[in-house]
Amino acid sequence: MVMINDVTLRDGEQTAGVAFNATEKIGIAQALSESGVREMEVGIPILGAEEREIIRAISGLGLPSKLMVWGRMRQEDLLASLGCGADIVNLSIPVSDTQIHHKLSRDRNWVLRAITRHVSEAREFGMEVSVGGEDASRADPDFLLRVMETAQTAGARRFRFADTLGLLDPFTTFDRIRRMKEASDLEIEMHAHDDLGLATANTLAAILAGASHANTTVNGLGERAGNAPLEEVVMGLRHIYGIDTGIDTKLFPGISDLVARASGRPIPANKSIVGESVFSHEAGIHVDGLLKNSDNYQNFDPAEVGREHRLVLGKHSGSKSVMDAYARIGITLTELEAKSILQRIRNHAVIHKRTPVSKDLERFYLEAFTCLSVS
User: Fold this and answer.
1) Which of 40, 213, 270, 306 has the fewest CB atoms lying closer than 10 Å?
2) Do the beta carbons of residue 227 and residue 4 sit within 8 Å?
3) Are residues 132 and 96 in the same domain?
4) Can you tell me the distance from the alpha carbon of 212 to that of 69, in angstroms, rounded to the nearest whole number?
């Protein structure tokens, strides 16, 4: 089974302008755990006493999910992580020459020495360790293997491959992860950013190549364009590859809404899986097909994610849509009658930029058939 390690409470909160309070973080952690997310990254202890207190509060809930905290590959970050109640610490360090030289002003050997020192220290303190390879997608692939070998020798259990700038494509991702998998016994975790809109695709590719863990965020929150959305990765794995993550997808609407409210980031109407409009249908040919057999225009049942199809009347509707809409308010129309009302519906959509509600439909009916009786 692929392990989802959701990072909404860490990388998701690093979205510019987003800050969760203690109640929100605890609520999100509970909701994720109840849905079956087996691992989550819940904060950054070095941020201060308040952050550590929240992490301890989440730990105190006794959730079945494993908890991870994030820190830099530094002693002060490691020491801050102790006593928070987390199961795993992710110690992050740049691994691309660009960041090693221009961010750290160091060299590759310094990186390897830092990994040896701090991973060994963490293990001495009894912590499980993931080594986070920041900017791994721009790193020399041969050096990445040295990083992984060093991490494993020091006692790490996992390596996080971070596409920090979201610049990979799925084909390159697959090749990189496959090579790492063949060369190391470490767990491999994919951390994808969505700068080019490929975070979900790259995460799926990494899993196909042998990654055991995938980082996600609810609604795709995260730095800049965000991370791979939890809902997309889980449903993609299920329906494209038949891989079960053990997550109850019927709970997605509630979790998505919870995070949207806590983050102050509304969910776009056309956001895949959780957007308000993604199971809405207006075009006449689509509605006709759905009414005949829903498999004509669905690749999975919306009920899987706690949703249902919604037929919407508008500019592109056909007579079958009109007949169905009127039937739902207790009025039976013939196809000829539906066609006589259709233009009113189309005009309404163009003028008012919204679908007509029941009162509008009743008015169109009266107008259409009053005109017919008068004529």
Assistant:
1) 270
2) no
3) yes
4) 19
Task: Determine contact, residues 275/312, Cβ cutoff 8 Å.
Answer: no
Whole-number Å distance between alpha carbons of 112 and 309: 54
Same domain, 185 and 232: yes
253 and 319 inside one domain: no
Backbone angles phi, psi at 128, to 5 degrees: -75, 145
Long-range (24+ apart) CB contacts under 8 A made by 322-327 are: 324/287, 324/291, 325/361, 326/361, 326/365
The domain in which residue 21 lies consists of: 3-263
Residue 313, φ and ψ in degrees, nearest 5: -90, 135
- Buried b vs exposed e over 72-102: b needs ≥16 C-beta within 10 Å? bbeeebbebbbebbbebbbbbbbbbeebbee
Q: Measured between alpha carbons, how far is 180 from 185 in angstroms, rounded to an integer?
A: 9
Query: Which of 232, 263, 294 is the C-terminal boundary of a domain?
Result: 263
Q: What's this model's pTM, rounded to 2 decimal places?
A: 0.88
The reply to whether 145 and 210 lie within a common domain is: yes
Q: Is residue 268 part of a domain?
A: no
- Tally of domains in the chain: 2
Mean pLDDT by 10 residues, the chain (375 residues): 96 95 98 98 98 98 98 98 97 98 98 98 97 98 98 98 98 98 98 98 98 98 97 98 97 98 95 84 60 74 86 74 84 86 84 86 82 49
Phi–psi pair at 294, nearest 5 degrees = -60, -25
Domain match, 238 and 294 both:
no
